[in-house]
Amino acid sequence: MIDSRPRPSPARPAGPRVRSGPDRTAQVRSAGADTPRWHRARPTPRVPRRRLPTSLDSGYPARETGNTFAYRIPSEVTLHVPEPLQRADRRLVNEVHERLREMIASGEFTPDTRLYQERLAASLAVSRTPLREALLRLEREGLVYTVPGRGMFVRNFTPEQAADLYQLRDVLEPLAARLACERASDEQMARLEAIQRQHERDYPVDVVEAFRGNFDLHTSLVAPCPNHRLCEFLRDIWGQNSALLIFGYYTHNVGAVSTMVTEHRAIVDAFVQRDAPTVERLLRQHIQDASESLIRRLHQSDGTGEGR
């Protein structure tokens, strides 16, 4: 026999009643209150299901590994990955860099001259990419500087930098020339004489070429020196940025180039005659006179009036 009497409902657990709605929001009723108060709890965050991407041939699903996806690509599939963009050719950048250094040292670009990239690229027959990299390298070397909103300019040098450079040359170069004069071979003597003659032929015609020969003559003058460490120090000094800027400054001084050629002839004559003490004395006087003349001109251009 079936008992049809209504059964008592099970006891409700203590605490607030929780109901779940279709919007997955918990509704809480305060227990023991005369008037029910309904509170809307913070909704449960819903995490959207992400669709795993497929492989490049849209037939092989990928599996998720952390924050990345590892594609399962069969061995027969060939991927054509484009090569990364290549930077400017290093050799071309080096050539442009050396050419710009020569242009600064030869006086084609005087201090504080603005460097227009469009004109330089056209004159050097290169694109602007290697030219820009070469200019940035010159900026790191201290030969040019950038003015925001205007462009790049050739850096100037101070009288203090010129004095430091000539002080080092005054100590080292005459000594190296004396040692070289004592050890030079006949071939080295002939080469030095040939450089001086070319030096003298270039001067009246092309002052820039005449001053370029200045560096060749000074390096050839100390080349036979047996003290290799001394020659290394001199090469470092001649390679200083201030030396290049000074060379470029001298190129536009016709009187200084004329005096330089005349003094070089006396030094070379003494060298060919193997008169080492005279070579040392004449070269030291040549360096000191050049230093005083340059520093005096720099002070006059600055308006300080210093120097003699």
Offer a quick outline of the entry.
The radius of gyration is 41 Å and the shape is elongated. Mean pLDDT is 75; it is low at 22-39 and 52-87.
Structural account:
This protein is mainly α and 308 residues long. Among the domains are: 65 residues, Winged helix-like DNA-binding domain superfamily/Winged helix DNA-binding domain (Arc Repressor Mutant, subunit A, Orthogonal Bundle); 144 residues, GntR ligand-binding domain-like (Four Helix Bundle (Hemerythrin (Met), subunit A), Up-down Bundle). 54% of the residues lie in helices and 9% in strands. It is built from ten helices and eight strands. The strands form three sheets. It has a three-stranded antiparallel β-sheet, with no helix packed on it. Strands 6-8-7 form a three-stranded antiparallel β-sheet. It has a two-stranded antiparallel sheet with strand order 4-5. It is elongated.
Report the helical percentage: 40-55%
Average pLDDT level: 75
Q: Report the total helices.
A: 10
* CA distance, first residue to last residue: 137 Å
- Beta-strand content bin: 5-15%
Biggest sheet, spatial arrangement of strands: 1-2-3
Counting DSSP E segments of at least 2 residues, the number of strands comes to: 8
- Poorly predicted sequence stretches spanning 5 or more consecutive residues: 22-39, 52-87
List keywords for this structure.
single chain, mainly alpha, 3-stranded antiparallel beta sheet, 54% helix, Arc Repressor Mutant, subunit A, Four Helix Bundle (Hemerythrin (Met), subunit A), 308 residues
